[in-house]
Amino acid sequence: MSAHTELVSRLRAAWLSGKTRPMEYRVAQLEALGRFLDEKKQDILDATALDMGKPPFEVELSEISICRSELNHTLNNLGTWMKDKHVEKNWATQLDSAFIRKDPYGVVLIIGPWNYPINLLLVPLIGAIAAGNCVVMKPSEISRNVERLVAETLPRYLDKDCFAVVTAGTEETTRLLENKFDYIFFTGSPSVGRIVMTAAAKHLTPVTLELGGKNPCYVSDTCNVQNVARRVAWGRFFNAGQTCVAPDYVLCSLEMQEKLLVALREAITEFYGPNPQESPDFARIVGDKHFQRVQALLRSGRVAIGGQTDAQTRYIAPTVLVDVQQDDPVMQEEIFGPILPILTVTSLDDAIAFINARERPLAIYVFSSCKKVVNQVLEKTSSGGFCANDTIMHMTLTSLPFGGIGQSGLGHYHGHYSFDTFSHPRATLLRGAGREALNTPRYPPYAPRRLPLLRATTETKRRAACTLL
Fold this sequence. Notes:
The termini are far apart. This protein folds into two domains: 3-211 and 412-424, Aldehyde Dehydrogenase, Chain A, domain 1 (3-Layer(aba) Sandwich); 216-403, Aldehyde Dehydrogenase, Chain A, domain 2, CATH 3.40.309. Helix 9 links the parallel strand 8 (216-219) and strand 9. It is an alpha/beta fold. It has helices at residues 3-16, 23-39, 41-52, 56-82, 119-130, 144-153, 170-176, 190-201, 225-237, 254-272, 288-296, 348-356, 371-380, 416-421, 451-458; strands at 85-86, 97-104, 107-111, 134-138, 163-165, 183-187, 207-210, 216-219, 249-252, 302-305, 309-310, 315-316, 319-322, 339-344, 363-367, 385-388, 409-410, 423-430. Helix 3 crosses helix 4 (56-82). The strands form four sheets. The protein has a seven-stranded mixed sheet with strand order 10-13-14-9-8-15-16, sandwiched between helices.
């Protein structure tokens, strides 16, 4: 028996014992996770700085604060979420009890990415714990300092019988996926997502895939250009652009492009100074391989702002490209770096057609002071999420589901949606053992005269239409 198989078997035995089911147990584990965030805060700041030069402010905001918000929201509402949900009944079951029981799946696997290695590992973990599961966590080996921190310290806070951290590269992860899990939650690229889904299919294991995509950002001619530039620049260059929901490219008119370039240059200088390489508030690319890939994308179009690089420190300046063509390399893949291409369109309809001709993205952004423009983009496109007149901020709401569609993902989470993702809605009908005479009409030998009675007591009738005057 391999170490991974033995681990999964041990956790499954713990789950079958019912240990994770009581609310008190779930609350205790969630509170322990909160202590990890509080007591290891400085270690998290140090590890993310070593991995990608991430500014402490960005770590506080995007890693620690979001996790704490998710944790508090879950603790505030867990009792309500766990309650059975009673449902409507037909006439045949009026004397019975019908409800949905939120059952844990069992032993789940969470595979985290490197770009937000705390947030994107712990937020799904919060949902899995809240739902009563045992969990195997696999942090990304690319953000190796955070991986080491999580592997060495997180198990000290959680119940080792029910929760485990596995460190693994590609080959070891492939072997890990050969084991039967009851649910798999993966965050990463579409190419690896297909591998995970293929492995899950062998055991008919349900999955959530949080993938990426090229998120379009349409800027109409009716907007405050300075505000647009600051919000787009913040969303694009936060974490050096290594954000799955970052605006990946801008669509606007040629006239707006000229105004936007001036405003973007001002915003970048305001944020990072005249030389962003010296700014303590601008992160670095996570590794040499990723640096080389992003650097190669600078050859698309023409550099209008930025473009400077330093391979030794994996620095790529906040960069804006113009004269970009649809078939340029920068438009063929998710950028995942501090590069913002601008493509010109002739109209709103042209922008919508451009968006709809491509894979559905994780997010769509639109900037306009005209509500009609915003609503047109919302109604005529499809994406995992949508945000008007800002970027990224929709994912800070625990009340909204976060997830992709099509190429950008499968399933969603955050807040109540995390609890639901890791819970099986178990249909439950509790009938009395007596009153057998009421059941007789449905038994053989069948008599056609009984059919109207059975239909009347079991069929759902359509309500009469009501016209509002």
